[in-house]
Write a structure and sequence with these properties.
alpha+beta; 4-stranded antiparallel sheet
Length: 154
């Protein structure tokens, strides 16, 4: 009877250890998911802030400040803040002179995010802007924007 009790005790102890292991793994995954979600929220806030500050810089005719939110790839392509601002003024008037801004979805794609922004341009036309954002030294920068006419206005 003593041996059977010992085997039963060992089985119970083994079961408890395995159960505790599963509980710890589940808890750590839940905690990791919470951290990932919080990091994603912080990224979205920072991305939207960078976009908004660049649009404000355009509105205030502060080319250097708008240039500060451009990625290194954009800076290499255009070479100077003057060339960059002139390009945005000509090709992206809804970005350069936005009268309304609404942030919608943010979609992470590994090393970059796409932030969708609904804009109303200077002539009252509504646009969907798809901002490609990259993080450089913990700062989110604009790596490109694709504009298309919005189906529904703001």
């Amino acid at each position: 009877m003593g041996q059977q009790l010992t085997r039963t005790t060992k089985s119970v102890v083994l079961f408890l250890i395995i159960s505790l292991g599963f509980a710890l793994v589940w808890a750590s995954q839940s905690f990791a998911n919470d951290n990932d979600e919080e990091a994603g929220i912080q990224d979205t806030i920072q991305i939207q802030d960078s976009i908004l500050r660049q649009i404000e810089a355009f509105a205030n005719n502060d080319g250097e400040q708008a240039w500060a939110y451009a990625s290194e790839g954009i800076k290499r392509r255009f070479g100077s803040s003057q060339v960059f601002v002139e390009m945005v003024r000509e090709a992206y008037p809804a970005v350069h002179n936005a009268t309304q801004i609404e942030f919608t979805e943010n979609v992470p794609h590994g090393i970059f995010h796409i932030q969708v922004v609904k804009l109303k341009g200077p002539e009252g036309k509504s646009w969907d802007a798809y901002y490609r954002m990259v993080q450089v030294e913990n700062v989110w920068k604009v790596a490109g924007v694709r504009l298309q006419p919005a189906d529904i206005g703001i």
